[in-house]
Amino acid sequence: MKKTLLSIATVVAVITSANAQDMLSKSKFFDNWQVGVKGGGFSWTTREAFIKNTRATFGAEIGKQISPAFRLGVEGMAYVRPVQFDDDPEFGNFVDMSNVSLVGTVNLSNLIAGYKGTPRFFEVEGFAGLGWAHIYPQGADNRKAPNVLNTMTAEFGSNLLFNLGQSKAWGIKISPALVYGVDGVENRAESVSSNELNLKNSWTQVTAGVVYRFKGSNGAHHFTTATQNPDNSAELGRLRDELNSKNKELSDCQRQVNKLQDDLEAARNKKPEVVEKVVTKNKKTLESVVTFRVAKSTIDASQLPNVERIASYLNKYSNAKVSIKGYASPEGNLEKNKQLATARAEAVKNLLVKRYKISADRIQAEGNGIGDMFSEPDWNRVSIANIVE
């Protein structure tokens, strides 16, 4: 018996954990509670005919939906005395037995077919519970009271559930169940246990009831999924696009790093070459490269020494003139890149005029569109200054 109950608890825990992962909406402690009342009939499973000997039973329940597929609740049932004892003064109790149970319910429809963010009109549930039954003494002198007044119970059954209304706040269910009196063994010679599930010590009951689900912090009477919120969907899409963009940038940077590492390794392994250079007297040479960031025409502080090199040259040679040509890398729109190339050349010219007081008529600035001076496309985001012969 203990192994059976442990197995039931393990299955319930696994189902709860699995379904909790599927929920996207946040749930607070006071969300997803429900109450209900029900009534029906019952009779002993093997001792009497169900229809002929049916007695009335009624009760109430309260439960919390832990996930769309699992609910945990408490149920209380009262069982009416046999009709044949109505005129017997020693059987004066209207209710001769009660049973209070802790019940775990699995929504088989949501577990198998998945939860779409709102309850279906018709759903099938299975439930199991452990409880405590009390048999009330009958008669003033208790002469016909049973020997056992309390017993542990175990129940198993199903709910045929109909969810009503647009908000699905109300539900009607039909619930057949089998309830065992666990304490005691029918034949001691056949068992060493102190309890068992035996049909001879069980009763069958069928009830119909109504439940009401309270509204939660999400504004609904049931679980909602995060994908039902348009704002959340838009934000999720934006974050996904941003992540994809960052991944692409990271991949591009990694390729550049790998290329630079290969170039560095090749330079280290290259044998030194001796180059003879003949310098003609009074031959003035200048080539200064200013690099720019992606889609930018502003000059970074790290590039100021390259601009200052041009200014120093022009100050040293008062008759010299320079030509500044701007370039862009091939990525992006061609027309915008042409405008960007011109803006980069103008940026160097403006800095020479404003900061270093170089006469504007000594500086020629023009954009040359897409550059192909360097093998790495990103390195062509530059302006290059040369002497005008």
**Coarse shape:** rod-shaped
- Low-confidence stretches at least 5 residues in length (pLDDT < 50)? 1-6, 8-24, 140-147, 274-283
* Estimated radius of gyration: 43 Å
Enumerate the strands of the largest sheet in spatial order, edge to edge or round the barrel: 1-2-3-4-5-6-7-8
Kindly estimate the percentage of residues that lie in beta strands according to DSSP.
Answer: 25-35%
Q: Determine the N-to-C terminus distance.
A: 103 Å
Got a strand count?
A: 12
The helix-strand sequence is HEEEEHEEEEHEHEHEE
**Main sheet characteristics:** 8 strands, antiparallel, barrel
Q: Given the helix and strand composition, which structural class is it?
A: alpha+beta
Q: Considering DSSP H and I runs of 4 or more, what fraction of the residues is helical? A: 25-40%
Assembly state: single chain
The total count of helices amounts to: 5
Query: For the residues shown, what is the average pLDDT?
Result: 81
Which keywords apply here?
389 residues, alpha+beta, eight-stranded antiparallel barrel, 5 helices, 12 strands, disordered N terminus
How would you summarize the topology of this molecule?
Elements lengths: L1 H21 L10 E12 L10 E13 L2 E11 L14 E13 H6 L8 E14 L14 E15 L5 E12 L20 E12 L16 H40 L17 E5 L12 H13 L5 E7 L5 H21 L8 E8 L11 E6 L2
Parallel strand pairs: 10-11
Antiparallel strand pairs: 1-2, 1-8, 2-3, 3-4, 4-5, 5-6, 6-7, 7-8, 9-12, 10-12
